[in-house]
Amino acid sequence: MRLGYLLNTYPQPSVTFVRREIHALERRGISVHRFAMRSDRDALVDPADLQEYDRTELVLQAGAGRLLRDLLGMMVARPAGFVRALASAWQMGGRSAQGRLRHLIYLAEAAHVARRAEVLGLDHLHAHFGTNSAAVAALVRDLGGPGYSFTVHGPEEFDSPLALSLGRKVTGSEFTVAISAHGRSQLCRWADYADWPRIRVVHCGIEPARFPQPAAMPGGGTLRLVNIGRFAEQKGQLLLPEALAMARARGVDVHLTLVGDGPMRPQIEAAIAAHGVGDEVTLTGWLDEAGVRRVLAESHALILPSFAEGLPMVVMEAMAAGRPVIATYIAGNPELVIPGETGWLVAAGDTEALAKGIIDAAGTSGEHLHRMGQAGRARVLQRHDIDREAEKLARLIEEATRR
User: Fold this and answer.
1) What is the pLDDT of residues 346-392, one digit of tens each?
2) Fold topology of 2-205+385-402
3) What are the Glycosyltransferase subfamily 4-like N-terminal domain coordinates in residue numbering (predicted)?
4) Would the pTM count as exceeding 0.90?
5) For the chain, how big is the Rg over CA atoms in Å?
């Protein structure tokens, strides 16, 4: 089988789960050609991402002239498909001129991908995220190219389901993947009831071999927490400095390592200064996978104060590393974090609740933290082994290509 993978931006530090999924499919003997609209090579720090960059075809690098020629070529060679795709692009663009113009650009990108899919002999396209990558995949199908499927992660897709035409994309797909039961429930809200059976759950996964037996819990009297992720409004990191200050005022000795970067870094740094916790916080910037495993080993627990999520990879990685998790009671988090067993769940947006989670973790013995970490590790390895999850995805693709 020859499979095309389609993303808007790839590779990038925040989507290493896609890279793991592709590699797991390739271990099953499936040939995967990577398409991305764009990528920022200068932002890549992980050697594995740099290798992926060299293996990825960047559609926009073909240039506007090439995309336009491919679009005109489709209009001549496949007039019925072109009219069908043009109508789909117009409808997905909604009523705004900007939306329709954007989808006409997606149509040109789709014409290029369709031409390349024909040259490469691709049997199926799989897109990640229900945004423009799924729109391009749907338009490729309308142009007469291979069928498609796509994985919806959230929360972005669920913020704008109508603008993204999620229901239409589900209907046109061979199948649609949600990464959690919660994600599937949200897709069912926007899909026709008749399409519900085509919405399947395939988890993102980890490579267990990269997570050998967890390191011992750090010693000393300081509770060491780590937060990993993009500094964006949905991740809720702005609550952490105040929560740290509250916990410290109640006698908790705590240190937080923030791993990542993003548009809210200035606000986070300002909040750290405003709450006087500069000595209790370390900002590392983005780290490669080895660096992430190192900071997890040096921490007692992961803390994730998110306002919106899908099913966070950092929770899986922390649990695989034998570390309990303090997370908000949203989205797919409760599918992994079991209060009192693998971590703590707190109300999203509630700084007092977040501070209490920190205080509770500080009051938990190292031995009990270790037992919680082991329980979390067993749970995530059972539910999120990437090779098992890729096998589920491969079966769905194989079934689709036989229809």
Assistant:
1) 999 999 999 999 999 999 999 999 999 999 999 999 999 999 999 99
2) Rossmann fold (3.40.50)
3) 16-210
4) yes
5) 22
